[in-house]
Design brief:
This protein is α+β, with helices and mostly antiparallel strands. The protein has helices spanning about 5-15, 50, 60-65, 75-80, 85-95, 140-150, 165-170, 220-235, 285-295, and strands at about 20-30, 35-45, 75, 100-105, 110-115, 120-130, 155-160, 175-180, 185-190, 200-205, 210-215, 250-255, 255-260, 265-270.
Length: about 325
């Protein structure tokens, strides 16, 4: 099985785990956008229910950080610390997904939040997939990046190889290691991850043969990025669209379905790599419905909007 099939099989297995968690894949996990994590899991915190009632979509970071609140409407320009075009785009998106309400007064636009943003995030885990440790590529550097930045609470390496002491010695001690068999979905924990500490992180920004440039990342920056990662995980999930190919079937791994498997290629496939055969998938799959059925994500949350208090009239 190639790395893509390994990744989707692991995501399905994690989503079907007894511990409820949000599972996503291919998310940016650095301040510069230079680091993409294969898989991210987020365990729900105590206020997770309040988050599910707001929107099934990712809430933009600028909308969360804006000085808006639920108590009263605010003039939109006074609520954002960014250029006007960007603020307008964020407002439009926040209104579209139900996080903001907007009204016009005397030719001016005013906004308010429909609900307070909750502290819903439990543990954020980054998982690097490397099915074959015989071809590690930049694995050691990638894992060291994740540990030194420390934006996720835990870092794990998932592999289909037999892990030896030599392998363990080549990766940071804080990194957990799983031997995962995508065919049987059995997962052996070879080493548990060490929780990464709060505080400033160190982010490599430029590597050269003679030196590596680094940048200090404050704890506040890390927490904001951590929240952004969790929000993107909540909005995106991990499934991919089914290719327009008559050989593709709805594949199930560990009791969780929504995975495109091409019987002609005999592999889990991306839309771009399915065989080029005439026709299309005969039975369209509602991927959001599959996610709603198998995960704690809520596709159609009840209306959580608060009503404007009558005191706002004064």
């Amino acid at each position: 099985m190639d790395e893509f099939g390994f990744e989707l099989s692991l995501c399905a297995t994690l989503e079907g785990n007894e511990t409820p968690q949000i599972v996503s894949r291919q998310l940016g996990a650095s301040t510069t956008g230079s680091r993409i994590v294969d898989v991210v899991t987020v365990t729900p915190g105590s206020a997770f229910g309040a988050r599910t009632r707001i929107s099934p979509a990712t809430i933009p970071a600028l909308a969360i950080d804006a000085d808006v609140g639920v108590g009263r409407y605010r003039y939109w320009k006074a609520a954002f610390d960014c250029n006007a075009d960007r603020a307008r785009a964020v407002i439009d998106r926040a209104v579209e997904i139900g996080f903001f309400e907007r009204e016009r007064r005397g030719g001016r636009t005013y906004i308010r939040q429909t609900a307070r943003y909750p502290d819903w995030i439990g543990t954020v885990r980054a998982i690097e997939n490397k099915p074959d440790l015989g071809a590690p590529g930049a694995l050691e550097r990638q894992l060291q990046f994740d540990v030194s930045l420390g934006v996720c609470d835990e870092v794990v390496l998932a592999t289909n190889s037999h892990v030896t002491g030599a392998h363990l010695n080549r990766i940071p001690e804080a990194v957990g290691v799983w031997e995962f068999d995508p065919d049987t979905t059995e997962c052996d924990v070879i080493r548990s991850p060490t929780p990464l500490s709060d505080g400033p992180g160190v982010e490599p920004t430029d590597r050269k043969p003679s030196h590596t440039a680094i940048e200090l990342v404050s704890d506040a920056q890390k927490q904001r990025l951590r929240r952004t990662i969790a929000e993107r995980a909540y909005g995106n999930g991990w499934r991919v669209p089914f290719p327009a190919c008559p050989h593709v079937e709805n594949h199930t791994v560990g009791g969780v379905d929504g995975i495109p498997f091409c019987t002609n290629c005999e592999a889990i496939v991306r839309p771009a790599t399915a065989c080029e055969s005439a026709g299309g998938y005969p039975h369209p799959i509602d991927l959001d419905e599959r996610r709603n059925a198998h995960s704690p994500w809520i596709r159609r949350p009840p209306d959580a909007r608060t009503e404007q208090g009558s005191l706002d009239a004064f």
